[in-house]
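Quick review question:
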């Protein structure tokens, strides 16, 4: 009979792998179970035809903005190579007036314009100053004091261009949030914490660099779906077509709707929050090109937000993000669908999705369709948490829940849709599981498989 597991972690995205790493480092026996055939979750990178194709658009700001991520990066030694996490030059632009307007999201943009009028830039500075002085905590958006205000409500107090050309497209393009539905508090807290886009970095070897580095140190079982968790006096049983696994405790590092389905017996405070955590679907198309192309005005830049487009929210020139993303002389461009298009095209065939988004991209990248060698469509039913006011209202009770044999990790636990939200949740989950294991000494007399 093998030694029983202390912790089984369901999900090998950054939240699950970081939780497992922290617990294993503390001396706990941990196994990670992942339904997919590779680790990374929404931070997965495909390696095909000499390209590194990121399934998402994750960027890494400074350590001040992403302290949990950088703490983990340093702990596993990813920062020992100075070229492993390079800066991305001119990372973010806005498409307006027939070209990309650079320096979005950085102080220089207040001078160069970003496609905004002088009055709009003054109002943007006023908004950013207000958020900076508000002491917002991205780990506790429910404490922001913004009540039931939505992102649209927050922006309505400022010049229309601030919302229509910059911050509205930021919410919809990078988070998939319709501004009229998403609560203002998580958006404001994330905006205040993230700082200037001039600090944005990327992983040279693909956005799955951190998950792969963590997985290499852990007991990870891919192609191992979990269909349910059942708590009992001797621990938790995880049901799976691959056979049951038992452990003293379990961390569900999966989207909230999946966690709710796996753990229908969750206590009321947990269940209320899980039910309140909505999600925005994400749809992204990667185009492998026979030559590099960039939107006009963004020769060096990476991401271009596209305001007021029914189909297209963001265009990313991935070969400009880092030269290793595409072979020399080739190009790699990704197209992020708008929130409405992500819903409407969720079940459309890949060729239709690729064709329609590429057609919309022609005004930014004339002739792009003729240069496409291959199209890859990435779909996430549970793309990013979509925080609504009922989730904010339910969160205090969820945060104050007692220790239990089943716990959670993921960016949805703080309503912060980014890798920092995921990694920060891992530190919380690991602390809670350690405390639970310390106070409960029972062992599980069964074989962990």
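Suggested answer, residue by residue:
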């Amino acid at each position: 009979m093998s030694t029983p597991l202390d912790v089984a972690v369901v999900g090998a995205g950054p939240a699950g792998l970081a939780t497992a790493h922290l617990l294993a480092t503390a001396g706990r026996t941990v196994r990670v179970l992942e339904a997919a055939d590779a680790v990374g979750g929404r931070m997965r990178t495909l390696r095909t035809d000499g390209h590194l194709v990121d399934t998402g658009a994750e960027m890494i700001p400074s350590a001040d903005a992403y302290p949990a991520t950088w703490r983990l990066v340093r702990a596993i030694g990813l920062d020992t190579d100075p070229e492993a996490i390079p800066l991305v030059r001119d990372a973010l632009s806005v498409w307006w007036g027939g070209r990309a307007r650079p320096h979005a999201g950085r102080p220089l943009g207040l001078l160069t314009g970003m496609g905004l009028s002088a009055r709009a830039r003054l109002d943007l500075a006023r908004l950013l100053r207000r958020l900076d002085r508000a002491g917002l905590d991205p780990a506790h958006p429910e404490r922001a004091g913004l009540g039931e205000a939505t992102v649209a409500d927050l922006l309505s107090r400022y010049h229309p261009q601030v919302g229509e050309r910059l911050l509205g497209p930021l919410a919809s393009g990078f988070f998939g949030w319709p501004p009229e539905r998403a609560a203002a508090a998580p958006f404001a807290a994330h905006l205040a914490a993230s700082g200037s886009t001039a600090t944005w970095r990327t992983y040279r070897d693909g956005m799955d660099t951190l998950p792969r580095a963590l997985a290499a140190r852990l007991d990870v079982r891919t192609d191992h779906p979990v269909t349910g968790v059942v708590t009992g006096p001797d621990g938790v049983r995880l049901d799976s077509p691959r056979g049951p696994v038992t452990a003293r405790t379990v961390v569900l590092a999966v989207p909230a709707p999946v966690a709710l389905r796996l753990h229908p017996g969750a206590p009321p405070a947990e269940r209320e929050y899980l039910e309140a955590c909505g999600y925005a679907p994400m749809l992204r198309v990667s185009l492998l090109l026979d030559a590099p192309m960039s939107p006009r005005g963004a020769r060096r830049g990476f991401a271009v937000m596209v305001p007021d487009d029914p189909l297209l929210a963001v265009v990313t020139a991935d070969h400009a993000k880092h030269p290793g993303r595409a072979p020399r002389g080739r190009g790699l461009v990704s197209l992020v669908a708008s929130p409405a298009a992500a819903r409407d095209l969720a079940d459309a065939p890949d060729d239709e999705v690729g064709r329609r988004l590429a057609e919309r991209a022609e005004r930014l990248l004339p002739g792009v369709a003729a240069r496409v060698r291959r199209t890859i469509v990435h779909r996430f039913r549970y793309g990013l948490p979509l925080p609504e006011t009922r989730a904010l209202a339910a969160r205090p009770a969820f945060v104050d829940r007692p220790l239990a044999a089943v716990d959670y990790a993921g960016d949805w636990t703080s309503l912060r849709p980014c890798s920092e939200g995921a990694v920060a949740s891992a530190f919380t989950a690991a602390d809670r599981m350690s405390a639970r294991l310390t106070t409960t000494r029972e062992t599980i007399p069964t074989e962990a498989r």
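Why it works: The longest strand covers residues 372-386. Residues 107-194 form one domain.
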